[in-house]
Fold this protein.
Amino acid sequence: MKKFSKIMIQFLSFLLVMTLSLNCALAAEASAAEKTSIFDDVSLEWLFDLFKDEEETEPTVSEDGKTVTLSKSEYDRLMALEAKYNELIQIQEYVDEYYYTDVDDTKLMQGAAAGLLAGLEDPYTFYYTPEAFAEMWEDDEGNYAGVGLLITTSYVTGICTITRVFEGSPSLEAGIRRGDILNKVEDLDVNSTTINDAVNIMRGEVGKPVNIQVIRGDELLDFVVTRAEIHTNWVSSCMLDEEIGYISLYEFAGDCSQAFTTQVNELLQKGAKALVIDLRDNPGGWTEDARAICDLFMGEGVVATLTYRDGSQEVMYTANDDNEIDVPLVLMVNENSASSSEIMAGALQDRGRATLVGTQTYGKGVVQWVLPVGDEGAGFQMTIAQYYTPSGNAVHKVGITPDVIAEMPEEQTGTLFELGDLSDDQLRVAYEEAKTLLKK
């Protein structure tokens, strides 16, 4: 009984600290959390309910502080918890007692947390160490020390494809191209299970080199890339002619929705009567940014419907906005357009607001929470819902079919075109479609 009391009291203390820390951390991260619509109304009651008993009575502590008296129901509940975590507790006891060197308990707990989520076998659910969680928020802000690559991972093939090489970045200067497959970073073989480690290696001190190997066609190419300060622009735009504006949205991150709005208005002021919006190779990001951008072009209505495990649903809406931008739209997508890109594409297509041009999209039709956990700055990402387009179409593992299929010619695959370069065959198709819409 002594062993049980010690372990379970420590365990309960850990759960209480974790819960309170999570509550405080959520408040501290409120500004960032507002970026996802499903996060705004999160209640922590579900977390407290896990450890609440309807007939629970307050534990009493003896005067000497050595004995805690619990109700029968609370005792039974703790016994069930001990049985559930018994293997983990036993392993830790053996490690503490017999492992051949000193043990870092923090790393043990981080490994246990990562392993718990890995057991879900969901590639979109994983644990962040405090360092990785901080880097994730740095990425979202768009300022970090690295090499300047955007990488899309296929969890089917395990292949990690470079989908964007940032302008002015050390990777661009070294000769790495869009379409290259990331094969090695230093001595690490890169695939879908090691990509986070590869990204961490590519981060580091400005001015220090990192060895990167890519596959280009049937060649293995090695590059030495010197890390630099990377400043990410989420949106770029230009006029394709006197009447058609072009805007490329690279990722739903940072201040992208504000930047997108600003640049769309600038295109309209320059005389744009139709817009080509490019979401090719956009891996997604915050759902709220997708909703906000849809709001520019559509009146009140459904953007997407989220369905949870218990069957309940949450509907993402656009508002009835008097400032709706009522111009013909062509939306470009490809096999790397995923997540929030597909939310936006599905909404604009289903509601008859845009013509989709390109190839079948990626098919990531699930949504994640990103949550802080504990009091050391760690966090985790967890899939919590599947989403459907306004017409009720599933996206997950299916993707969205464009209205106009336009394949990228093999000879152009991986080519870094200048912004708005109409020698890009897919863009040329989208441009011609926009001209047709203007004539109607």
Summary: Residues 235-439 form a domain with the 2-enoyl-CoA Hydratase; Chain A, domain 1 fold (CATH 3.90.226.10). The first helix runs from residue 2 to 28. Confidence is low (pLDDT under 50) at residues 1-48. The CA atoms of residues 97 and 103 lie 10 Å apart.
